[in-house]
## 1
Amino acid sequence: MQIKSFLKNKLKDNKMDKGESIQSYFMRITQVKNGLLSIGEVIADRELTLIALGGLPRSWNVFNTTILNNDRKPGFNELLTRCTQEETRMMERDKP
């Protein structure tokens, strides 16, 4: 059971690193989720969505608030799509 606790903590403590892409961040979450699945531990899609949102940096606060205040929360894969769009928008905005 130690591996299960380790992986659950790793999932919940997952934070997006400075300069990391959304794709890379979501891949790390997916890898831990798959590790848990391999030992029979299923993580609900809604929980993954909340974990992913919780690990985004402060610069994503407006995006986070918009998603969390919406009546319908996106699933994990839909959130990845929205985050990718937001990342692209942010990069375009920050271009010189």
## 2
Amino acid sequence: MRVLGGLKPEAVFGFFEEVCEIPRGSGNEKGISDYLVDFANKKGLRVYQDKALNVIIHKPGTAGYEGSPPVILQGHMDMVCEKNADTAHDFEKDPLRLMVDGDYVKADGTTLGADNGIAVAYSLALLDSGDIPHPPLEVVITVAEEVGLEGAAQIEAGRLSAKRMINMDSGKEGVFTTSCAGGLRISLHFAVESADVPVGCSLVKIMVKGLTGGHSGGDIHHERANANVLLGRLLYTLGEKFNVRLVEIEGGAKDNAIPREAWVVLAVEKSEIDRLEAEVASHAEVFGNEFRNTDPDMELTATRLPDDADSGMEPAAAHPSNGTTPRKALTEKLFRNAVAAILLTPNGVQAMDTDIAGMVETSNNLGSIRQTDTEIILTNALRSSSLSRKKMLEMKIKALGESLGATVSSGNDYPAWEYSRDSALRKTFIDTYVEMYGSEPVVMGIHAGLECGVFGGKIPGLDMIAFGPDTPGVHTPDECMSISSVARVWDFLLEVMKRLKD
């Protein structure tokens, strides 16, 4: 039985539920991409699936619109895969467990993927319809948007003829997005250097959790706590006051999500553990006070692990003095350099836009910390609507890493979408909104990456706008989607389609 059965518009929610049954995290899009191709083939529509698994579906204009200029409907098929620590869910194979809570559709303990599954659902409902007036449609559903707009970068622009595009990846009803920031992923790589843990040490796991998190672009101005940064602050103090060794470290899940959790395993002299636990408790009070309004559910805990606990690291050879099998830990130098990098990396809002009041211009998010057998990797999501300031921030992070002995890599560099003073499509959207609802919509830019910037670079003169229904909490397990907003935005989209005859 369908969880969303009976919700209106039925076609939209029906397709959305089907999409949610297919695992589609970034890098795992083959199932949903093949689903889209199969849908198009069954409907007799012209479809193209490229090597990256992007899908383009063409549908002719309806009666009276056959000769109208075509329009691109655009969204992405992948989703951010985040879950609560106590949620059992395998994003590689499990369907999302949908729930209806009042006016909202949610997923049980995981991200919902309304970002951007609702664009896929809207597009499919239009493609499936037989009686909705519309111009010729070029539906473009991309892969790997959430990891740096990678799918959009591989779109073959020659397969598209439209000079106007409607992006449906903007998550607040009544807000029309007309520009966006460019971005870059930059990582610091520290080569692992290990040494035996001294005799007489036990392992302690320290964890930061319960943070609010959020989108590293759209929510960065809220000044929410970053779990990786908090952990770096704590580790710096512990390194100054105690003889500790770092065994394992991990934080955050995606570079484009403000990290909600981070943890570390330390080797600590047994005689020092009580005092270390007191220091952690003291920091918990400090952090809790600093972020009492933005992250009220924050927890900072220290847990003693059994002496025979498996930290996940490869054991060293038997210690010659007592025949036991000690842990491997990072060298003191590497510990200090890695912690310094975490602590000193610019994080959060770096500059505000001087032309648009309240708009973030430049920011960085230390999104993830990963440890492998050979490296500790700190990954940042850098954003700016200023090309020069984006380059300056990249230089800062690169210089910091190199000064601390790290190698630096960067990628997923995508352009900003600059505001167009003369947009016929924007005028149509605004006029339609005012006539339908009797009030002016919000027209704004966003401090996040949208695929519009990439498409604008590929198709000269492309007139673009982005919009969508209310989808609060994206990139977190609190993500939800307003049922009534989905219905209103659908009605609005259909009215816009009618008006795009010329």
## 3
Amino acid sequence: MKKEDINIAVDGNRIEISAEVKNEKEIKNGEKLLRSERYYGKVYRAVALDQDIDGTTTQAKYADGILDLRLPKKSSAAAGRISIR
């Protein structure tokens, strides 16, 4: 799979990873076609995490068939007191 074929989307605490694979292979003997193989497939995975993800600082790396995602938590608003009226 090529890294161009992988799509990653982040929405709040949900991350979606999808990819499409296309392989075509032909073996010829001169002008004569001996064998033709085609494989097409799609994969999709969605995961909901406990906390929201900071979409501005996420990082993704793909090397040797391994997808490495760095998904930092979104910093929550500072805790404060609420006055009662």
